[in-house]
Amino acid sequence: MTKAARPPSKTAKASAKAPTKAGTPQLLSVQILPRPVMAGRDFLSNLDMSAAELRTVLDTAHSMKRGEWREVKPLSGLSLALVFEKSSLRTRTTFDVGMYQLGGHAITLSNTEIGLGTRERVSDVARNLERWVDGVMGRVYLQQTLVELAEHASIPVINGLSDMLHPAQLLADYQTIEEEFGTDLRGRRVVYIGDGNNLANSHIHMGVLTGSDVTIVTPVGYEPNAGVLMDAVKAGVNITLTNDLAAVQGADVLYTDVWISMGMEAEADIRRRAFKGYQVTPGMLDTIAPDGIFLHCLPAHYGEETVPEATEHPKSRVFDQAENRLHAQKALLYHVMGEMKPRW
Questions:
Q1: Same domain, 161 and 35
Q2: Among 5, 172, 271, 299, which is disulfide-ready with 325 (CB 3.0 to 4.6 Å)?
Q3: Do 196 and 253 belong together in one domain?
Q4: What is the per-residue pLDDT across 173-188, written as a single tens digit (0 to 9) for each?
Q5: Range of the domain at 232
């Protein structure tokens, strides 16, 4: 949803370069920054972007990683509330550092302090935060919590993770994929193996936006969300669902996530039995494309969905992927908050 307008900053359109791994960065100035393409909007799902907007955000992420934004502080004087119902390493660190590097400030609020929906109504939290800060990032249990925050806050709300989706993670994932294969990913085979959880759902959305050939490999009964699959059907995009592990063979990108997400600990034994054989090992990596890569959003539960020898394998880009959380989310923050002016 579009939020209340703020006076725009002085920005101009500028094309971002394609991803490169070397070379002296061309430092940008405030006069030639790209125009924020999601100004004032919520980001609860990857489908809150158009394909063209995603392209601009990823181009910005590549540019930021090259160091071209080092001399500009486009979010100077702005603040972001980081609301956490779930524990976090990458999400907290990257959003906090990202705001700092862009000239802004982040404040971390744990659920012990807020008590979303228990100590205080979600709508009341939203109406308070909108008076103090310029944006909210929420890492929560339920997608509905983010929807309610967005409905009642006049400032942008960003999904840092929910039970349904993990869209900020997918920005970093696709930045990593583009570093290997370039920006045209049409027909590239992205194979997700494991639980049909929020990561699987967001991979489906990214298949809609990028034209990548997405395959989801799960045990019977652990398929992705039906509503998310319907999003692909409505967009006319074919997503392959299968229980056959042979689908991994020849993948350009092999992706996995934990079998037992936070809040599912009571199902641990049932899930370990159901997912037997779905572990990503060096042997499985030998079956993907010769130039294929392995991704995992971390944290890894070694001995379950993967093993250390896989995340440390030559085909692994797991730690590049983790680094890219910083660059991709900085790009997102700029394109959502880049036209705001400090209110104080």
A1: yes
A2: 172
A3: yes
A4: 999 999 999 999 999 9
A5: 167-322
